[in-house]
Design goal:
By secondary structure, this protein is of the alpha+beta class. 16% of the residues lie in helices and 38% in strands. It contains six helices and 19 strands. The strands form five sheets. Strands 1, 13, 15, 16, 18 and 19 form a six-stranded mixed beta sheet that branches. A hairpin with a 7-residue loop joins strand 15 and strand 16. The protein is globular, with a radius of gyration of 24 Å. The two termini are 38 Å apart.
């Protein structure tokens, strides 16, 4: 739940920035533009939605953003999520509101040239969120409907990225000094984009420590895309064995008389739906300065995205040869467990 909420609060800034500007027309007619942002996950016990509005006004838009009234509606919007499977509708889920507190407060930094950057420019420490605490079903396609007091209606829909798991490596992971290996899985239904990362966990003890410390080192492996959203496609990404050892050498601090014990490796694969993949691709910043960045949205009657994702993690032991090589050939303080 926390992970989903953090992602919502982070990406909504990009959506708001695409809908407001420090430039304004004093004589332009006001237009009520609703922004919707939600990424649903079949494993989440709560589905969160951010539903602010675009704004404009005299002066700097970043300063206007610090006022909750600039982007919040003065009334509660009527939001409903409804599932559909084989033509049969589920019971509608009515969206409620809650104020998230203790959001990072606004701050500024000034560089050597005197330029000021506003950190966390949107209002704090509270954020208004919409939610439903009913867990969603992976077999349903969900429709979102939002009604405003002026009679306007917004709508969107998304299927859920189904669950999946890592099929290879099976029992232990090998990091070879001379070759690459691969991570394999089967694409789930509605899963189109995949990002793979690894995390090596270890424990550490040295003179002066009151107890052993649990530590880890993470690194990004790569991205893959499925050809369709139907699921069932075999997917794989290679990882470098030599990089594993060079990463540990560069990242592990030289602590006098330290003893370390290798733990498990976490293989994490995050998958996103087609809508999320398209949104991230368009907003990746890869466009030319001469090219106008398109505004992507799947919200009918507003702007934003209503999409889906799923993240799977597999904990796996190092292979015996990998652990022995780490202990015997690298002066990093690793020992065999008693």
């Amino acid at each position: 739940m926390t992970r989903g909420l953090l992602l919502i609060l982070t990406v909504i800034i990009a959506l708001c920035y695409s809908s407001c500007s420090t430039d304004f027309d004093m004589y332009a007619e006001y237009k009520d533009v609703t922004i919707v942002y939600s990424i649903v996950d079949m494993d989440d016990d709560t589905t969160w939605l951010k539903i602010p509005k675009a704004y404009t006004g005299p002066g700097n838009a970043l300063l206007l953003a610090q006022n909750p009234d600039s982007s919040n509606y003065p009334y509660k919007l009527n939001g409903v999520i409804t599932g559909k499977k084989n033509g049969v509708l589920s019971e509608p889920l009515l969206l409620d509101t809650i104020t998230i507190t203790n959001k990072a407060t606004i701050d500024t930094i000034i560089n050597s040239d005197g330029d000021t950057t506003v950190l966390n420019p949107f209002y704090a420490p509270n954020q208004l969120m919409y939610f439903t605490s009913t867990k969603l079903n992976k077999d349903y396609v969900y429709s979102l409907t939002i009604e405003k007091n002026n009679g306007e209606t917004l709508s969107s829909s998304t299927g859920l990225v189904n669950n999946f798991s890592v099929s290879k490596p099976v029992n232990r992971i090998v990091f070879s000094e001379t070759a690459d290996n691969s991570i394999e899985w089967t694409a789930p239904k509605n899963g189109v984009m995949f990002e793979v990362s690894l995390k090596f966990n270890y424990t550490e003890y040295a003179p002066g420590y009151s107890d052993t410390l649990n530590k880890s080192i993470s690194w990004y492996v790569g991205t893959r895309s499925a050809k369709t959203s139907d699921g069932g496609e075999s997917m794989d990404v290679s990882y470098s064995g030599p990089y594993f050892y060079s990463l540990l050498v560069s990242e592990l601090p030289a602590v006098p008389n330290v003893t370390r014990w290798a733990g498990k490796v976490d293989i994490t694969i995050a998958s996103g739906s087609q809508v999320l993949a398209t949104y991230l691709d368009i907003n990746s910043g890869g466009a030319s300065l001469l090219e106008e960045v398109p505004v992507y949205s799947n919200i009918d009657g507003g702007t934003g995205i209503f999409a889906s994702r799923y993240t799977t993690t597999k904990e796996i032991q190092l292979s015996t040869t990998t652990e022995r090589n780490l202990i015997e050939n690298y002066n990093l303080g690793f020992k065999f467990k008693n």
